[in-house]
Write a structure and sequence with these properties.
binds zinc ion, mainly alpha, 0% strand, flat, 121 residues
Length: 121
């Protein structure tokens, strides 16, 4: 993958991360608004709104996605992005565009899903 493409994916992943963090920030602000009998403490709000705290506020699917995004950004830094973690082949760029956090090529993913179906019943 070209450096330009890697940068493009890094940007996509960062934007997605920002979107998740904004959503968490919105939730926290609402909670503070709702729970303030006394004045909302600006300092408390500011300290609640760090990236790390926001990540901790994410739940379920969003938290899972955030972990995948962090991992994908790490893999860009390590030069492993776009490589299938199972077979080591390149993952199709088209597939990465549709799902930038993926770590498996389509063949390995299908194989994994086939096995999951096999053992789920
Ligand atoms: Zn593979």
């Amino acid at each position: 993958m070209s450096p330009e493409q890697l940068e493009e994916f890094r940007q996509i992943l960062r934007d997605e991360k920002k979107r998740l963090l904004r959503k968490a920030a919105h939730t926290i602000k609402n909670e503070i608004e709702l729970s303030k009998d006394d004045m909302a403490d600006e300092a408390d709000l500011a300290s609640a709104l760090t990236d790390q705290n926001l990540s901790l506020r994410l739940r379920g699917r969003e938290r899972y996605l955030m972990e995948k995004i962090d991992l994908a950004i790490e893999r860009i830094d390590e030069g492993e992005f776009g490589e299938c973690v199972v077979c080591g082949d390149d993952i199709a760029v088209k597939r990465l565009r549709a799902r930038p956090v993926t770590t498996m090529c389509i063949a390995c993913k299908e194989e994994q899903e086939r096995r999951e179906r096999l053992y789920s019943d």
